[in-house]
Amino acid sequence: MSVTLSNPEGLVRSAAYHQVAVTTGTRQVFVAGQVAWDADGGTVGAGDLAAQVEQSYANVEVALRDAGAGLADVVRLTVYVVDWTPDKMPQLLDGMARAAARLGITAPPPATLIGVAALDVPDHLVEIEATAVVDDEPRFFTVPGYGDRMLERMRYHQAVRVGNRVEISGQGGWDDDLTFPDDLEEEIVRAFDNVERVLQAAGASWSDVVHVNSYHLPEEAGYIGEATNRVMVEQFRARMGDRAPVWTETGVSALGAPGMRVEIRVTAVVED
After folding, report:
1. 219 Cβ contact list (under 8 Å, min separation 6)
2. pLDDT tens-digit map of 217-258
3. pTM passes above 0.90
4. How far apart are CA 139 and CA 127, in angstroms?
5. List of E strands, the chain
C-alpha cells in the first residue's frame, strides 16, 4: 500500500511525526490529533474548552483540505478531553456548534469521546483525531432509540459505511433511556449488544469485525481489571468464535456519561 505523508501549510511542523497520511486505493486520509494551536504554535482559547474545540476542528479541516478531502469525507472522529466531567458537556457542544457554523459541517460522523489525564502541553484541553475516505460516497446510519437521541442532541451518527468498510461510534452499556446497569458484567455485555445493533444497521455483523478499541475505567489503580478482561474475552468468543480481531484495550480516567465504565468501538470490513 502506498502512503504519502505531508505537513500542510498553516499547521505546526513537528520533527516527531507528520500531520497527514494518505493511502491509495479507496483513498483514506488519517489526520493526526489536532489541538487548539495556531500556525505559529500558540494556543487559541487558553482555558476555554469551547474555543479550543472550535480551533481543533478548524485545524482538522486544514489538514483534510491539504489532502484533497473535506469534513464531509470524515468517517470517524476521536475527541480526547482533559479531566472530563459531565458538566463540561455544554462547553463541548458549544464548541462543536461554533465549528459547524464556521466550517459548514453538515454530516456529523461517528465519534468517540474519551476523558484523558493530560495532553501534550498543559494549555491544551482537547484533541481531535479524524479518519476520512475519499472517492466513495459515505452513508451514515443510526439506530432507533438512543441513536436518534444522540443524533439530535450531540450531532453525530452511530455508524458510517464507505464501500465495504464500516466504522462505528463508541458504544456504551446503556439502554435506550441512556441508563447503565449496576453490574459491570451486564454493562459490558450490553455494550457488545449495542455494537451489534449498530453493525446491523450498517449491513454488517460481528463476523465482519477486524479491529476493536475498548476503553475502560480501571477496576483498581494501574490495572483495568480481571473481571473486565474475563468478560471481554468471553464476549469475543461468544460473538466471533474462532475469528480473533485486532484489539486495543485502554484504561482511561473518564468516559462520556456518568456511571459509564466501558466503551467499545469497532471497524468492520464486509466481505463481498
Report:
1. 184, 225, 226, 227, 228
2. 999 988 999 999 999 999 999 999 998 999 999 999 999 999
3. no
4. 25
5. 3-6, 20-23, 28-34, 74-82, 111-116, 126-133, 139-141, 159-162, 165-168, 171-172, 209-216, 246-251, 262-269
